[in-house]
Amino acid sequence: DIGLVEKKFFDMEIQKYVNKITVQTSAGTKTYDYENKQFAQVQIHSKQINGANVILEYKMVVTNKGELPGRVGLIEDDLPDGLTFYSELNSNWYLSDGKLYTNALATEEIPAGESKEVTLILGKKMTGDNVGTTTNTATISMSSNEKAVEDGNANNNTSKAEVLIQVSTGLIRWIGITMGIILILALIAFAIILFKNKKLPKIFMFILVIG
Q1: Where does residue 72 rank: exposed (0-12), middle (13-18), buried (19+ CB within 10 A)?
Q2: Calpha distance 110→71 (Å, rounded)
């Protein structure tokens, strides 16, 4: 034994998710839970799209993938065009030069194999012309440990989540109802043909028509 000490690996990972979307329109408020999806979509009826307010709740999960306990001093979030930052809803975040930052985890040591979470709430005011996909990216800007070992895997220091907002006309719903009616009428017609050919008992014919 010559006193050599094995250098342990240090690696902090971030994963960004869409946690919840709330849509406020003239018809009321609807909330959609997504349970950690990196892609989520909502539809707003064409009659309600103008003036609709969409609240996006993101969750960022920071996981220690290495062997050393450590801290994440700063997380940076790229505020996409068209989204609004609400300081009153994000006490741990601040806006600077068009980007969002949080040091909420700076004083919390994350042991190897464990995770910590932070949330971010942003809003989007709909006009009818700004539908489509919004991509939001978060990055670990600063991380540290007592051994002063650098993060050995920069590939997992950034993560993105996407939200697709679409206009709904209700056409798909009516197509589904129409197809269902056509199918029922076709079955009844087929049953009538079998009945006339004496291939379907009267009782089955009665049940089918009543049903």
Answers
A1: buried
A2: 6
3-state secondary structure the chain: CCCCCCCCCCCEEEEEEEEEEEEEECCEEEEEEEEEECEEEEEEECCCCCCCEEEEEEEEEEEECCCCCEEEEEEEEECCCCCEECHHHCCCEEEECCEEEECCCCCCCECCCCEEEEEEEEEEECCCCCCEEEEEEEEEEEEECCCCCCCCCHHHCEEEEEEEEEEECCHHHHHHHHHHHHHHHHHHHHHHHHHHCCCCCHHHHHHHHHC
CA 174 to chain centre: 27
Instruction: Indicate whether 207 pLDDT > 80.
Output: no
CB burial of residue 124 (10 Å; 0-12, 13-18, 19+)? buried
Side-chain-facing half-sphere of 203: CA atoms under 13 Å = 0
* Residues contacting residue 21 through CB under 8 Å, at least 6 positions apart: 31, 32, 34, 40, 42, 54, 55, 56, 57, 163
Length of the chain: 211
pTM of the predicted protein model:
0.78
Higher per-residue confidence, 186 vs 59: 59
Query: Does the structure show a pLDDT above 70 at 133?
Result: yes
pLDDT value at 176 more than 90: no
